[in-house]
Amino acid sequence: MRISSFTVATSGLLVSTSDAFTPTTTQPLSVASLKTNSFTSQQSNANLLPATSSSSTALSMGLKTSILTKLSTTAKQHPVATAVTTGAILTTATIKYLDKPSRTYSEGSVAREYDAWTQDGILEYYWGEHIHLGYYNEEEMEAGYKKKDFIQAKYDFIDEMMKFGGIDATSDAGAKVLDVGCGFGGTSRYLADKLGPKAEVTGITLSPNQVKRGTELAMERNLPNAKFTVMNALEMDFPDNTFDIVWACESGEHMPDKEAYINEMMRVLKPGGKFVMATWCQRDDRVVPFDKRDKRDLRFLYEEWTHPYFISIEAYKELIDATTLMSNVKTADWVTPTIASWRHSIWVGVYDPMGWIFKPTKYVKCARDAYCLERMHRAFKRGLMEYGMFAAVKKDDKSS
Questions:
Q1: Which of 217, 225, 231 shows the shortest CA–CA distance to 184?
Q2: Do the Cβ atoms of 376 and 298 come closer than 8 Å?
Q3: Residue 339 CA to its chain's centroid (Å)
Q4: Which residues contact 134 (CB under 8 A, 6 or more apart)?
Q5: What does the alpha-carbon distance between residue 252 and residue 310 come to, in Å, rounded to a whole number?
C-alpha cells in the first residue's frame, strides 16, 4: 500500500465528482481467467484550385474572427454560464486523463514503483512509517474520522491485527517473526519493540530503497532486532519451519501468483506458529458475477497501482485450506473500520501541503494517486472490494 496526497482543487474534484467514470478495458475478471488506418495522400491539382485562393483565405479568416467575436460577446453577456461550461469541459477532460491507468503491473514494476515512492519522500511525510490503512473504531467514525490522528490510526491497526492473530506481547515475547512485504519497515520495527529485545523480526520486500530506509530507521530507533532484506515472497530463501509468526499486511495485492504466496508463507511457519494476513480483496464473483462497470473499475484499480489482480476472501481461504497445514482458520471483512483511510489520506495533503508543494515534478503523480484513493474508497463502499483479514495456526506434528 502506498499513496501521496494532492491539492485542495484536486481533492475537491475527487470527492464531489460523479461516480460515472470513463470505461477502460473490460475483459473477464474471474479468478480463473485472472490466474493465468490507412492514410492515403492526395496530390494537388492546379486545375482544381480556385482562381483566387487569397479570397478564400480572407473568407476563412473572416469566419474565424466572427466566431471568436461572438464567443467573446457571449462570455461577457453570460459570464457565469461560460465559467460553468468551461469548468465542466475541463473537469471531463481531467477525469478522462486520470481514468487511463499509468502503472500497469509487469515484471519489476512493483520494486520500481516502491523505490520511487520511497525516494520522493511524500508517502513517508504523510503516512509516517506505515504503508497500510488505519483503524477507526465506531466512536471515532461517529465523531468524524478527520478528527483522529492519521498516523495513530495506523498504529491502532497494528494493535488490532495483533489481537486478530492472537499475538500477545507477553506470550510471544522473543518470537522469530517474518514480515512479508514490509514496506520500509514500520510494522517490523513496531513488532521488534513490542515483542522485546530477544525477538527477531525479518522484513522482506522487492524494493532496495525500502530495505535501505528501513535499516536506517531501525538504527535510529536502536532496534537491532529488526532486519530487512530484498527477497521474492514467492521464492523465499528460508528453510521450512523457520518462523514463530508470519505476518503479511497489504502485500498479497501485488503477488502475481496467490497460491505460491500462501504456500510459501505456510512453508516457513513453524508447527504451532501463528499466521495473520491483511489484504485488499475483490468481491466473490462466483456469488455475484461482475457486471460491465465492475470489470471496468477493477481493471483501473489493478493497472493504476501495479497490481496483477485481486481475489476474494473466500478464494484466499480456499488456498489456505488447500495446504492442509493450517488449523483454526478464521476470516473477516474489515471494510467498516478501515474505509475512512482512503479519504483521510487525501485530506491530510489538503490540510498540510508542505509534503508535496515544493516538488512540482511530482504534481501529476500526486494527482493520480489522490484520484486512485477516491476510486478505491468508492469501490470499497459499494462492495466491489473487501478488506480481507485472515488468521490461522499451523498444525503441529501430532495433529498433521
A1: 217
A2: no
A3: 13
A4: 148, 150, 151, 152, 153, 154, 156, 157, 338, 340, 341, 344
A5: 8
User: CA-CA distance, 344 to 336, in Å (whole number)?
Assistant: 14
Q: pLDDT tens across 240-289, in order?
A: 999 999 999 999 999 999 999 999 999 999 999 999 999 999 999 999 99
Q: Which three cell numbers mark 339?
A: 474505509
**How far from chain centre, in Å, is Cα 154?**
15
Which residues lie below 8 Å from residue 96, measured CB to CB, with a gap of 6+?
22
Contacts 24+ apart (CB under 8 A), 163-172: 164/276, 164/332, 164/389, 164/391, 165/245, 165/247, 165/274, 165/275, 165/276, 165/391, 166/274, 166/276, 166/391, 166/393, 167/245, 167/274, 167/276, 169/194, 169/195, 169/196, 172/199, 172/244, 172/245, 172/274
Residue in 161, 115, 154, 114 with CA at minimum distance from that of residue 136: 154
pLDDT in tens, 124-148: 999 999 999 999 999 999 999 999 9
Residues in the chain: 400
Residue type (1 letter), 300: F
**CA 242 – CA 328 distance, rounded (Å):** 20
Q: Hey, which residues does 179 pair with through a beta bridge?
A: 203, 247
Q: Which amino acid is at 184?
A: F
3-state SS string for 189-215:
HHHHHHCCCCCEEEEEECCHHHHHHHH
* Strand ranges in 41-184 using DSSP code E only, listed in sequence order: 176-180
